[in-house]
Write a structure and sequence with these properties.
Nucleotidyltransferase, domain 5; 10 helices; three-stranded antiparallel β-sheet; five-stranded mixed β-sheet; alpha+beta; 279 residues; 10 strands
Length: 279
């Protein structure tokens, strides 16, 4: 391996349950902005894993411990398959985020499963993991996860916006990096797409066919979270408690919910990013 470069495999599972994202990346040691995504792959979850991860929020402590080990075995196997498929012989480390089950920073709680030692045992690689808990224990939000990466790799942009299970953003203000979750995105959109028999709303086609409902739009925007100042972050628990009850009580069709909710997403993002900024 080249001595002036770092080679790593990153492993991520998002709250939208699309699958496991793996990337084999190289970084120049002297300038991290000189990086290359050498290989990357998304491995979809089986229906069984989707069901298990979606319902894990209701598991007991013992069941969660067991699940974390089993999920670590699963991740280790997928990393080994990824390395074999792309003939990756050696890496400096594997960075594994795991899958978030709980995220309640106001209670100093965050839990990502996928036991790091189990992954290390399966892959025989150095594993870096458990990225959020120290920040939460010290009074931070533990999310979004990527503002340091944004600063190191994409400092030429005014704003770095991620649209995943949640929309989150980071930017520099008064020489300080600001980052927070804006609003739920795919955790809501995919939920209603699945009701219509598809995994996601490809190109927004279903939303385009729906009817915009202004009262529902305003009800969503009136949620207290959207008037709070950062630092702040969201978890699936908040979506289940605050967002889904509003959407279900509307009695609108899934297509109209998708239509109105995409407007809500766009509105919340537009509130954060001024015009004519490099994003």
């Amino acid at each position: 391996m080249k001595k002036n470069k770092i080679f790593a495999i990153g492993v991520m599972s998002g709250s939208s349950l699309d699958g496991i994202d793996l990337a084999f990346v190289s970084f120049e040691k002297e300038n991290y902005q000189n990086f290359e995504i050498v290989f990357a792959e998304t491995i979809p979850y089986s229906n069984q894993w989707k069901h298990t991860l979606r319902n894990a929020i209701r598991f007991s402590a013992h069941e969660l411990k067991e699940l974390s080990i089993n999920y670590g075995v699963f991740l280790g196997d997928k990393i080994n398959q990824f390395m074999s498929k792309f003939s990756i012989k050696k890496v400096d480390f594997v960075a594994s985020h795991g899958h978030t089950i709980f995220h309640q920073p106001e209670k100093s709680i965050t839990l990502q499963i996928g036991d790091g030692q189990t992954i290390a045992n399966k892959t025989h690689q150095k594993v870096v993991c458990d990225f959020r808990s120290q920040d939460v224990a010290l009074g931070g939000q533990g999310a979004p996860l990527v503002p340091i990466g944004d600063e190191l790799l994409f400092s030429g942009f005014d704003y770095c916006l991620n649209l995943g299970g949640f929309a989150n953003i980071s930017y520099k203000e008064n020489n300080q990096r600001i980052a927070f979750d804006i609003c739920p995105v795919n955790v809501v959109l995919n939920f209603y797409a699945i009701k219509l028999g598809v995994e996601y709303d490809a190109n927004g086609a279903i939303a385009k066919s729906g009817i915009y409902h202004e009262s529902l739009f305003h009800r969503l925007n009136s949620l207290e979270y959207f008037s709070q100042k950062p630092p702040k972050s969201l978890g699936i628990e908040w979506v289940q408690k605050e967002v889904f009850p509003i959407l279900e009580a509307s009695n609108e069709t899934p297509s109209s919910i998708l239509r109105t909710y995409t407007d809500h997403i766009a509105w919340q993002i537009a509130k954060v990013i001024p015009e004519n900024k490099k994003v």
